[in-house]
Amino acid sequence: MYKLFISDFDGTLIDSEEAIPLSTMVEIDRIRKLGVKFCVATGRILKSVLDYNRDFPFLDYVIACDGAYVYDVVNRKILVKKPLGGSIIKKIKKLYHDKDIYFCTAREWNLCSEDIVYSEVKNINFTFEEFYQNNKNNIYKMEVYFNSKKERDSAYNELCELKVKANIVKMKEGKKDYLLEIVAEDVNKATGVEKICKIAHISLDEVVCVGDSDNDLPIFLSVGKSAVVANGSKKLKKVAGMVTSSNETKGVEKVIKKLF
User: Fold this and answer.
1) pTM assigned to the model
2) Average pLDDT rounded to a whole number, residues 117-140
3) Which pLDDT does position 192 carry in this prediction?
4) Do 71 and 200 belong to one domain?
């Protein structure tokens, strides 16, 4: 019997309208009543996921910022906080100062364009240096956006050659956005899963994960059962234990019904 169900968020649990189908929420509620913990593992910030939990609570845990921030929703307890080091933040900002860069805290995506950082929460703009001084210990993830796959891959190779001490994943969003996701070097979604399992006394063999993107790969390689949605990456499909339907046709719900 599986004891922990993990789902990626964008491209997996939510559809193109950024909604979770009601019937899927009902299925999640059903397995939670059976004692199965439900966790979202995502590149999103914590607040963005918790907003979905207000009207229809369904979360036990959130692995946010690709594993850099792990939160026990039921007990309102932070399990993991691993911010990026200041030297890495400044190095990447310097290398790609002409690119759009997002700095992710637990509560906000902060867009940095040129030398200005935009805060939607505070409705104010900062210079990069002002933002850095106020948030240097609370930046858990960076996203650097490029105009093409070639440009992104070149930047990835450059950072590898420079031996930047960070975990860097190549990603794509939509048809045009190519980006690098950057977190601390000992961080990924699987490290978040391991922390939860240790605290909840759950074996990794008792974990199910559904995902769609390459940053889900570490979890797929470590848990007992993995499923990739039909719209998922080719890399995940090579290692997944099963393929389900797309996020637009309730792929997560179908995995729940099949396994429980």
Assistant:
1) 0.94
2) 91
3) 97
4) yes
